[in-house]
Predict the structure.
Amino acid sequence: MLKSVARNKVDPARGELSDHRFYIKTQKEVKVVKKKAFAIILTLAMVTMLVPITSAANDPYSVRQMVLDETANTGSLRLYYDDRFPVGEYQVSLGNQQCDSKKAGTNEPDDAVITKVDNQLIATGCGTCMATFSKEGVSYSVTITVTAAPISLVMVTGHSLGAGEKGDPAESVVCEAGQAYSTYAKAGDLVVDNASDFVPAALGYGDSKTTVADINAFTSSGDGVQGEDSAFAYYWNQLTGEKIWVLNAARSGTCLQEYWLPSLTDSRNNNFWRAVALFKAAETVLSHEIEAGHYELRHMGIINHSAANSDENLAIDDYTEKYLSMWNGFKSKLQMTINGVDRTVDFLGITPFWQSVNTTALNNAKIVNYYMGTSAAYSDIYITTDIGRQWSIVLSAVSASTSLS
């Protein structure tokens, strides 16, 4: 992953951004911005900076594209694990299935490679399945091949804007079923000892696997979380072709120096350790899924909503030391071994907090964060988006007007 060179630069001498292209000056201007459009633009900017654009979803000969030979009356269909394929007007009968994957955490083979539910096929195992697709008196013998799905694990941390304390879940971006998973552990309820209660026993289709509430919330219209989670997941999936599991350990009213340092271990202020516990619980589930043959891990990362009000008084050196302590702590603690290879979080995406919409002046915390996100010296740290500073003004506009037009 390469850093973008076309990002806003910080001029520490002036304490300002040298490029103000994205700045919205008045609430009147904000009111012409649709809420969904804003969330989508913010998240699209975020994801394009964080991930390489090599999407399998854009390949017409790739996954979820059935190819039929009308001469030989045969066909092929490639799916990833937990993909859904609508059969449309075809009548489908499933034949012989050869399953190569196991139920997560066991040595038992999956029950089926393909399961037909209503008018769609669901990849519930990896291997091959022979199927007959029939329409208008013509039948095709189709070989369905299911392989392990690429997946990334990302956790949202920081203060209320990350936690989604504001907003309407009915406005959340809806992800395609089987492409994104949600674990929304509101950090006020999350503690170190109950982190495993927030994650499912396994991912993928099946009521027995998704006993934890809302694991598929991203895929249900009007039921998504209130923060950026579902929009981030949607664009990550669209731009990379990877499935994504988004954890949310952010907590309203928290700041770096009082809640997110590894040195803070008391039960009230240990948000860093709560987040670590949640991520580790998810890692355990995901490692079982990978060992079962269902997924292949691509990326692990952190999205951090930073520079809260209580951090604004810190000196540049002090804030830098504390912020790197958090990031290095995450890299040290969030490790897992996959097929003999040690992995850890490979990127930190910073979304700076902007309290005032009437000035572009930067305090020390924001200066440090912008420098980290744009400097080659911090190759694994990114500014997720510059227009994150408009988030609070959009929320103000939303509360002042029942509709944006």
User: Anything to note?
Assistant: The CA atoms of residues 16 and 87 lie 55 Å apart.
